[in-house]
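re: that chain from earlier
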Amino acid sequence: MPHTTPPAPGGSSAPATLERLLSAVPADVRAVFSARTLRPLLPEHDRTGTLLHTLEVFLRHDASWSRTAAALHLHVNTVRYRIQRIEHLTGRDLTRLPHRLDLHAALLCRAGTTGGGA
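^ sequence. v structure.
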């Protein structure tokens, strides 16, 4: 017997996603979470935006050093250095799934409050 997913409450058959979950969180709460989590990577602390952009690309490429390096046209050691810097500044270890999810959620919250992309 094939496995089927029961419909979501309210009759919606759309899959549950982190984006949908976060959309139910009030905008002001999303904005505070994003700002607190990403503070050292934001333009007022990193004028070039290099670290925030590197984080976005790194997470978009499923934490792959080589695919991130290729996407950014950088040497993989440069990506490793930037990720280490991000980890140091945010207090998060990007080899740990909960920490990656924190940063990914913060980027999604930021995108939802500023129109930026994650």
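The helical segments are 18-23, 27-38, 50-60, 65-72, 76-90, 97-114.
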